[in-house]
Amino acid sequence: MKKIFNYGVMMVVVMTLCVGVSSCGQDDDGSKNDGNKSKNNSEEIVKDPEGTITANISEDTRIYISDCKGCNIGWTKPNNFLLLAQNEGYFGYYISICNVGSVAGLGSITKISTSGFTNPVGHKNTEVACEKGYGYIVKCENPELGKTAYVRMYVVEKIVSTSGAIIGAKVKYQYPFEP
User: Fold this and answer.
1) 103 has which bridge partners?
2) According to the CATH classification, is domain 53-174 in 3.40.1620?
3) Res. 18: pLDDT tops 90
């Protein structure tokens, strides 16, 4: 009887471990992995795709999306993205962002997410955290013109002042992103 009980306990432990290890749809850190390649301890950083640009963003330095003249990407305190879209007259642009989770570099973002974007805003959005090692897709759209452009972006590191305050981020991005 004792052997049967020990065998039963061992099976419950093994099955519990198997279920915990085989969960799908999320990365090890619990973040969503919408088909983009996540980072894990054994994987090296993925090589940057051709056309990758490295930039520092801050409250004063932004990435301007050329086809969508009213859209740009910056950084704001405490450590969030600053997304701006200017609605100039009839031809208004809207901007939104999607966090694709922890990724192994810009080349790991291989498709445009079908969900998870913030609500498109026609002015300013500061609600999404700028997290080191995470990938993002920014969407700039103009419904009146039927125009949509995408940027894929990877946060390399925080920019820290000599006093230790976060003052921006070093990012890699590709525009236009057309998988």
Assistant:
1) 38
2) no
3) no
